[in-house]
């Protein structure tokens, strides 16, 4: 469980730091002249919407891993780590083939004059239908350890992602825009892929 916790924590921190997750909220808040508290509230709501769809998919993937692990011990010791490595290499390959820009949409223009709640609902809806799939392979690995592991991954992912987005939006409001990582923005899959490969290799030699 310790391994699952730290793996989830690392992936969640990387996920929350992606600029396209929190910069649109700052842009909207500035354009709409929202107060800090309102902007942070919207950051939290959009973060929850985004993580909700990811967790729903993740639980389904984790359940598959859990059911398969009941049938054969090889799933836990060999196949699940191999899935992490393969998925990680796939993400690395995608990054090398083309520059993948993980964006959830641009909301910096054409939004003034609309209802505040329409803007918030639109942003949350866009985030909900843009789940991040990098952590789903890790759900499969965690699923082989049972439901407590799936719940742990989900809890860490939601808490860290939402808190990270709110924190970065708060920093952005304060003018600390330098927290934006251009490398992470354009190479999200490369970083996530390398993390998945490392976790898979570690899991191969050190069983849960």
Structure characterization notes:
This protein has 208 residues and is mainly α. The protein has helices spanning 2-16, 19-31, 36-71, 73-97, 116-128, 136-143, 147-173, 182-186, 188-205.
Q: Topology, pairings included?
A:
Layout: H1 2-16, H2 19-31, H3 36-71, H4 73-97, H5 116-128, H6 136-143, H7 147-173, H8 182-186, H9 188-205
Helix pairs in contact: 1-7, 1-9, 2-3, 2-7, 3-4, 3-5, 3-6, 3-7, 4-6, 4-9, 6-7
Condensed summary:
With 208 residues, the chain is mainly α. The protein has helices at residues 2-16, 19-31, 36-71, 73-97, 116-128, 136-143, 147-173, 182-186, 188-205.
Order of helices and strands: HHHHHHHHH
Largest sheet: none
Structural class: mainly alpha
Distinct helical segment count: 9
Tell me the total number of β-strands.
Answer: 0
* C-alpha end-to-end distance: 7 Å
Low-pLDDT segments: 100-113, 176-180
Overall helicity: over 70%
Beta-strand residue percentage: under 5%
Globular, elongated, flat, extended or rod-shaped: what is the shape? elongated
Q: Nearest-angstrom radius of gyration?
A: 18 Å
> How confident is the prediction overall: mean pLDDT?
76
């Amino acid at each position: 469980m310790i391994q699952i916790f730290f793996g989830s924590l690392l992936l969640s921190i990387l996920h929350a730091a992606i600029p396209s997750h929190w910069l649109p909220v700052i842009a909207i808040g500035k354009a709409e002249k929202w107060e800090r508290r309102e902007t942070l509230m919207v950051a939290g709501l959009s973060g929850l919407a985004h993580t909700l769809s990811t967790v729903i998919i993740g639980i389904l993937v984790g359940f598959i891993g859990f059911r398969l692990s009941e049938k054969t011990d090889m799933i836990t010791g060999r196949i699940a780590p191999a899935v992490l490595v393969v998925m990680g290499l796939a993400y690395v390959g995608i990054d090398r083939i083309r520059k993948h820009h993980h964006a959830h949409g641009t909301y910096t223009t054409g939004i003034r004059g609309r209802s505040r709640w329409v803007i918030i609902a639109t942003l949350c809806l866009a985030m909900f239908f843009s789940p991040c799939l990098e952590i789903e392979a890790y759900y499969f690995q965690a699923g082989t350890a049972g439901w407590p592991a799936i719940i742990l991954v989900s809890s860490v992912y939601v808490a860290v992602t939402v808190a990270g987005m709110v924190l970065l939006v708060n920093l952005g409001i304060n003018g600390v825009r330098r927290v934006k990582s251009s490398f992470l923005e354009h190479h999200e899959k490369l970083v996530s892929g390398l993390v998945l490969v490392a976790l898979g290799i570690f899991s191969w030699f050190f069983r849960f």
